[in-house]
């Protein structure tokens, strides 16, 4: 099987399908989103962020429902997800009141688990995404979205609380991945 396609029943599957286009748009629009945040165009940044996160949900749902899962999508989708979230956190550190330690914890966990999962894959062990990982993504998305909105001052504490919950779930799910991986590593490939 070549790197640019999947074979389903001997038929070459094109990478030019709707899920991969949505993933590619997420990658292409991440710098636009960054510019909007750094320019403090908060409502525009919020709208673009929400639209890009919707593409994250749609691309996977469409790919699974229509049998359009490709090697490109398997690689590009998580890269697009991480690029957008890391960009959101870093730009919010620069342009708003998001504490930098939150970004450090989330980025270290995201990159650490990503590299660890790639290492496990090289060992012949697949550590799939978990339901906790999906909850983590939802909470991170909500936290970032709240920071992007020009909300009244009284919303600062609730916004921070949402982001703190996201950090806790991020750390807990990271530990859970390591525990699950240790179990998988004890079983033969």
* DSSP summary, beta strand count: 2
What does the average pLDDT come to?
89
The number of domains is 2
- Low-pLDDT segments: 1-7
Number of helices: 6
Fraction of residues in H or I helices: over 70%
How many angstroms does the end-to-end distance come to?
Answer: 21 Å
Structural class of the secondary structure composition? mainly alpha
Determine the strand fraction and express it as a percent band. under 5%
Q: What order do the strands of the largest sheet run in, or round the barrel if closed? A: 1-2
Describe it.
By secondary structure, the protein is mainly alpha-helical. It has two domains: 1-96, no CATH class; 98-189, no CATH class. The protein contains six helices and two strands, in the order ββαααααα. A two-stranded antiparallel sheet has the order 1-2. This is CDP-diacylglycerol--glycerol-3-phosphate 3-phosphatidyltransferase. It is an enzyme of class 2 (transferase). It is a multi-pass membrane protein.
SSE order and pairing:
Layout lengths: L5 E3 L2 E3 L4 H21 L3 H25 L4 H25 L4 H23 L8 H18 L7 H31 L3
Antiparallel strand pairs: 1-2
Helix pairs in contact: 1-2, 1-3, 2-3, 3-4, 3-5, 4-6, 5-6
EC number: 2.7.8.5
GO molecular function: CDP-diacylglycerol-glycerol-3-phosphate 3-phosphatidyltransferase activity
Family: Belongs to the CDP-alcohol phosphatidyltransferase class-I family.
Describe what is shown at a glance:
This protein is mainly alpha-helical and 189 residues long. The protein has 2 domains: 1-96, no CATH class; 98-189, no CATH class.
């Amino acid at each position: 099987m070549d790197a640019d396609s999947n074979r389903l029943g001997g038929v070459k599957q094109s990478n030019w399908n709707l899920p991969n286009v949505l993933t590619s748009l997420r990658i292409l629009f991440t710098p636009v989103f960054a510019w909007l945040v750094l320019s403090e165009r908060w409502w525009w940044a919020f709208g673009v962020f929400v639209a890009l996160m919707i593409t994250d949900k749609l691309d996977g749902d469409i790919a699974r429902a229509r049998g359009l899962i490709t090697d490109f999508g398997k690689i590009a989708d998580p890269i697009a997800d991480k690029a957008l979230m890391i960009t959101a956190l870093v730009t919010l550190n620069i342009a708003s009141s998001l504490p930098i330690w939150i970004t450090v914890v989330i980025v270290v966990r995201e990159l650490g688990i990503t590299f660890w999962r790639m290492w496990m894959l090289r060992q012949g062990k697949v550590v799939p995404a978990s339901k906790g990982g999906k909850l983590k993504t939802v909470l991170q998305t909500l936290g970032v979205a709240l920071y992007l909105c020009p909300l009244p001052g009284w919303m600062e504490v609730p916004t921070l609380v949402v982001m703190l919950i996201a950090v806790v779930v991020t750390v807990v799910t990271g530990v859970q991945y390591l525990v699950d991986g240790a179990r998988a590593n004890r079983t033969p490939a």
